[in-house]
Write a structure and sequence with these properties.
Oligomer: single chain
Structural class: mainly alpha
Distance between the termini: 56 Å
Number of strands: 0
Order of helices and strands: HHHH
Number of helices: 4
Strand content: under 5%
Largest sheet: none
Shape: elongated
Helix content: 55-70%
């Protein structure tokens, strides 16, 4: 493994930290609203909805951060896609298990649960947009240009002269058709 850092790593870390803070605030607000609407059942439903959404949304970011540890390795791309796909499969299986376990629980108010999940997902999307618009990352990153001073100049050493010398005349093929 290489110690090279991918430019998406700081963005993902910032997103996870902000999402954690927003999730904590949303959990408090959702718990209060849930309690006011349906007592303890509403509060538990709201907290469960926010928690489930936060866990599922964090799995993708965490899996990308884990996969980025192999950046620079010859097998980086297959490892990256394997880890991220594994995270998605994990989310799918956990979602099915969670829904089967929670579907007939007497302490779940389905309406409050679904509204809490939707609010949590929307809050996460807002965090993603805010973080991505405020991070200063170049449009093209994680590449080495041929003239990178650390790698040396890989461009031909022959000087390129756009002007023809006075005694040279370009060939007809160089002039193009119809010239």
């Amino acid at each position: 493994m290489t110690n090279t850092t991918v430019s998406s790593t700081p963005i993902l870390r910032t997103t996870l930290v902000w999402s954690g803070a927003v999730t904590a605030a949303l959990a408090v607000v959702a718990a209060i609203i849930g309690y006011l609407v349906d007592g303890t059942t509403g509060m538990l439903s709201a907290l469960t909805g926010v928690l489930i959404a936060a866990v599922f949304l964090a799995i993708t970011g965490v899996s990308i951060l884990i996969a980025n540890k192999w950046y620079g390795d010859d097998l980086y791309v297959p490892i990256f896609f394997a880890v991220v796909l594994g995270g998605w499969i994990l989310k799918f299986v956990l979602f099915l298990i969670a829904m089967l376990v929670l579907r007939d629980q007497p302490w779940i108010n389905p309406t409050i649960f679904v509204l809490a999940v939707i609010a949590s997902v929307l809050a996460s999307l807002v965090v993603d947009v805010v973080v991505l618009t405020r991070m200063r990352v170049p449009h093209v990153s994680d590449i080495s240009l041929p003239t990178d001073p650390d790698e040396g100049d890989k461009v031909d050493e022959k000087p390129v002269n756009d002007e023809f010398s006075k005694d040279q005349k370009p060939s007809a093929a160089a002039e193009g058709p119809g010239v």
